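Bump. Still looking for Alpha-2-HS-glycoprotein structure tokens.
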Amino acid sequence: MKSFVLLFCLAQLCHCLSLPNGLSPAYRQLNCDDPETEQAALLAVDYINSHIHQGYKHVLNQIDKVQVWAQPTGESFKLEIDTLETTCHALDPTPLANCSVRQLTQHAVEGDCDVRLLKQNGQFSVSFVKCKSSPDSAEDVRKVCLDCPLLAPLNDTRVVHAVEAALAAFNAQNNGSYFQLVEISRAQLVPLPVSVHVEFAVAATDCVAKEVIDPAKCNLLAEKQYGFCKATLTEKVGGEDVAVTCTVFQTQPVVLLPQPDGPDVGVPGPVADAVTPAPSPADLPVASLVVGPVVVAASQLPPPVHRAHYDLRHAFAGVGSGESASGEAFHVEKPPKVAHPNTAAAAGPVVRPCPGRIRYFKI
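Sorry for the wait, here they are.
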């Protein structure tokens, strides 16, 4: 018996010595619906939304896994979370809490993210994110609604034409800045009546909409002003009707970069080159402008290169994303199995630790 105890102790010592320097084997088990876990997940979603500039904002739908490991400087949280696309564009300043979740009948999109956070002195910071997203399957959409239109490829010629016609109609009725297309964000082909529903992002230029002769000579404003449009183009005998609604967001100030030490230290420099000042507030378009129906002629411009939706896999542009230059891989260690055969189970309902609750619906 003594030999067995000695052998066990030596095995434990070898295990501890085999760990990398500074790495603690301590592991803390958390429930996926624990308030601390949810706090980390919500911060991760905020981080994700702050680093996407195309497509739509996402909300937390479910926490699939959580692992907490002790680190020399705090605790490392590793989460697997599911998100759902909202109706708020990534450039929309609307708080996430006020954004509606895209419903199944609207052909919902789900995100799947691996996140790593560090908790120090009670504060979380995101150190790594890797995401992907995909639309609901056509079969699942049909189960909910037989007549609901599905997502259409964004480079479909009908989609591109609908966006061009809608933007032209908006600029024709606009008394302020001329707006240029930033991206086609979403499209659906409706069979009856034959129509195309599109959503797209726009940005204000230094040109006045009523005076534009050559749009190629218009430049985006230094203080970026974005807008988001929804439009429906309906085919008619001898033409087509376009109904478009655009919401123009407040201007975004120029981001200033820190300057190196030198004679010009303390003098900030803008990221973008200075352009013609923005029109006065009286000349800016109203927050929401509805145009239509308007009869327009078809155009045959080549479609831009776009996917069917903006995958979160390609959406990140900031440090710490899965596409970052660090090349850091997301490795998930297996938590230790702890068995206590002589300990009686605590009274009360059995709590399923993970995955956590579904906040909206599962795709």
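The chain is about 15% helix and 35% strand.

Edit: fixed formatting.
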